[in-house]
Design a protein that fits this description.
Blueprint lengths: L27 E6 L5 E4 L8 E3 L8 E3 L8 E8 L2 E8 L7 E3 L8 E3 L8 E4 L2 E6 L17 H8 L2 H5 L4 E7 L16 H14 L9 E6 L3 E8 L2 E8 L4 E3 L7 H32 L1
Antiparallel strand pairs: 1-10, 2-9, 3-8, 4-7, 5-6, 11-12, 13-14, 14-15
């Protein structure tokens, strides 16, 4: 057996190993043997014997007969001349109370399941590699004057705006995307967007993480405000993205409809409890 051991040189450092993920920007885990660290050792399970005591017969090569319970004979009752008598006969299912163990073929030993009978195992230093896709996102709103501060915070952090889709405005990909200066001629799209991108790039840098590649995607999400009157009061809701995600934090609700819906839910619960009570009563009565 050819081992990749110290004869081929010292093991390389962990960061000297060149490995690539199967697909960029996807989480992936991989384990491999560190080169030149293999070593042959006796199996720890069987201590180099290659076999273990049989669990069925505990190394004896035979098991106790289940028919005569190890006595070698059985008792039978038979009728003669209108009466019954019990007689003792040899057990035909075993040999003197024992049966040959079929698990170990009467040897008392079975192959070691760890080393598969080879008596030794290859030990090595395992290197665990993890590729992790660190995703950051940020939303810049259009400063709708209708929104108050609480509504604007809710809109920017809502699931609707996170799920909204829009046309691609800018896309960059490189080993490391460099920040740009906050000047109109060099900034990405505009000064506000450029500052937000620079901040995200700075937060993503970690000296303890080997970074393979970065991707920057900026999308423009259309946002439409719909204003309407409900019982003499003006209200607003927002539709965002080409996939039409809705944000309606203060959408009016008809009190009568809410009351009817609550009563219907309560009635459904009462009917369910009544049905369960009837079933329990029926089961108790049937018993």
């Amino acid at each position: 057996m050819d081992l990749d051991d110290a004869r081929f040189g010292p093991p390389p450092g962990a960061w000297d190993i060149v490995e690539r993920p199967q697909q960029l920007f996807q989480n992936e885990d991989k384990s491999l043997a560190l080169p030149h660290t293999e070593e042959l050792r006796f199996c720890f399970q069987c201590r180099g014997r290659g076999e273990l005591k049989c669990n069925m017969c505990h190394g004896h090569g035979h098991t106790t007969c289940a028919t005569c319970h190890g006595s070698g004979h059985v008792h039978k009752t038979r009728a003669t001349n209108g009466s019954t008598e019990t007689v003792q006969e040899p057990c035909h299912a075993c040999h003197h109370g024992h049966r040959d163990c079929m698990s170990c073929n009467r040897t008392g030993w079975v192959q070691c399941h760890t080393c598969k009978g080879y008596q030794r195992l290859i030990h090595y230093i395992r290197l665990d590699i993890q590729w992790k896709n660190n995703k950051r996102s940020s939303t810049i709103d259009a400063h709708d004057p209708i929104l108050d501060s609480d509504e604007r915070t809710a809109l920017v952090g809502s699931e609707a705006i996170q799920a909204a889709q829009g046309p691609l405005v800018l896309a960059e990909e490189d080993v490391a995307i460099a920040p740009r200066e906050d000047v109109p001629s060099l900034a990405r799209i505009n000064i506000e967007v450029n500052r937000r991108v620079n901040k995200m790039l700075d937060e993503s840098n970690d000296a303890n993480v080997l970074q393979h590649r970065q991707r920057l995607t900026i999308r423009g999400v259309p946002v439409y405000r719909i204003s309407f009157l409900w019982k003499g009061t003006s209200h607003n809701f927002w539709v965002m993205g080409t996939n039409r995600q809705v944000f309606a934090p203060k959408f009016p609700r008809d009190p009568m409809r809410v009351t009817v819906a609550a009563l219907m839910v309560l009635l459904g619960i009462l009917l369910l409890l009544g049905a369960i009570g009837a079933i329990v009563y029926f089961l108790l009565y049937a018993e």
